[in-house]
Amino acid sequence: MSVGLRVLAFLFLTMLAVGTSPAAVQKRIAMSFDDVPRHAGAFFTPEERTNELIAALKRGGVAQAGFFVTTGHLTKPYGADGERRIAAYAAAGHVIANHSVTHPWLSRTSVEDYVAEIDQAEAWLASRPGHRPWYRFPFLDEGGKDMAKRDAVRAALKARGLRNAYVTIDNYDWHLDALASKAKREGNPIDMDALRDLYVETLVDTANFYDRIAVETLGRPPAHVLLLHETDIAALFIDDLAAALRKAGWQIVSIDEAYRDPIAASEPDTWFLGEGRVSALAQMKGRTPASLVHERTNEDVLTKLFAERVLAPAAEASQ
Predict the structure, then answer these.
(1) How far apart are CA 86 and CA 7, in angstroms?
(2) E-assigned strands of 79-200?
(3) In 3-state terms, what secondary structure has residue 133?
(4) Are the beta carbons of 244 and 197 closer than 8 angstroms?
(5) How many CB atoms sit inside 10 A of residue 128's CB?
(6) Looking at the DSSP assignment, which residues form a beta bridge with residue 167?
(7) 160 vs 157: CA distance, rounded Å
């Protein structure tokens, strides 16, 4: 069967599984956080960040998010007591899953070494509360244009009973956190309300962007998976993000529910996987890669907005 026919068949089966019209389906979104335990930011210690993030998720009505663990971070200074912090996420009702040992690019790593990392991380995670048999590719890198490498790792995951923990909404939240942390460390005045607004606006706009692509591609909005990172600005503003998403018509669901969506059954047969599953399926239907990348997944764009909206007003207010 050709690639085009496989896509059409997948879309048809998806609509049958949903059994309703696109207009009748509410937008749904689950939250996930990568790189746990992550390096320290400038606003909290790692322990404070975990506590603040758990509290903010509760305030925001996010009952279950996914936390993807890079086990090698536990050996770093910022990973001290990381095991307890990971357990705290699970105790709060969230789930944990595999994000490798050293966060490697598959495109720069042999299949043998890459799969060994999956196995090592899974051995650490498997017996822990809240564990799910999921693996998220660091950098969303499934091997670039090396299809043989991509397929070899997909086969290894299947043999181990591990799901590809795909995302449907990519973004650069980590870059906003880096900008804010740098400004904080350097003693530059920060307009915290403007930072919150920029963070929330960027993520809501990105979510809506990928949902529009999903509806155009699938004929319906799937249960989306939002890619986030365990950052200080997430701990500061995740409850604000949850409120803004609901105001924009989104229902926040568990990541367990999101991964039960029919889109989870697809394995897009394309090299264009770094923007998430929705973009991959859209590219398979003929969309150009450039049209599938949100404008704010660009460091220069975010840096400019941060300077104009977060730093400049705060500097003027301090004069």
Answers:
(1) 38
(2) 95-98, 131-135, 163-164
(3) strand
(4) no
(5) 13
(6) none
(7) 5
Both tokens of 289, joined, read 């890669």
pTM over 0.85? The answer is: yes
Residue type, 117: E
Is beta strand 223-229 parallel, antiparallel or unpaired with respect to 163-164?
unpaired
For the chain, percent of residues with pLDDT exceeding 90: 89
What is the per-residue pLDDT across 144-181, written as a single tens digit (0 to 9) for each?
Answer: 999 999 999 999 999 999 999 999 999 999 999 999 99
Using CA atoms, how far apart are residues 34 and 214, in angstroms rounded to an integer?
Answer: 23
35 phi, psi to nearest 5 deg: 70, 35
Pairwise CA distance, residues 169 & 245, whole Å:
13
Residue with tokens 């660091």: 138
Helix or strand run (H / E) with residue 316: helix 312-318
Buried b (16+ CB within 10 A) or exposed e, 190-220: bbeebbbbbbbebbbebbbbbbebbbebbeb
- Residue 20 pLDDT > 60: no
Which amino acid, 11?
L
Residue 318: both structure tokens together: 């301090």
Tell me the three-class secondary structure of 32-87, residue by residue.
Answer: EEEEECCCCCCCCCHHHHHHHHHHHHHHCCCCCCEEEECHHHHHCHHHCCHHHHHH
187 exposure class (CB count in 10 Å sphere: 0-12, 13-18, 19+): exposed
CA angle 137, 139, 144 (to 5 degrees): 85
Angle at which helix 111-125 crosses helix 147-159, to 10 degrees, equals 30
pLDDT tens profile 197-234: 999 999 999 999 999 999 999 999 999 999 999 999 99
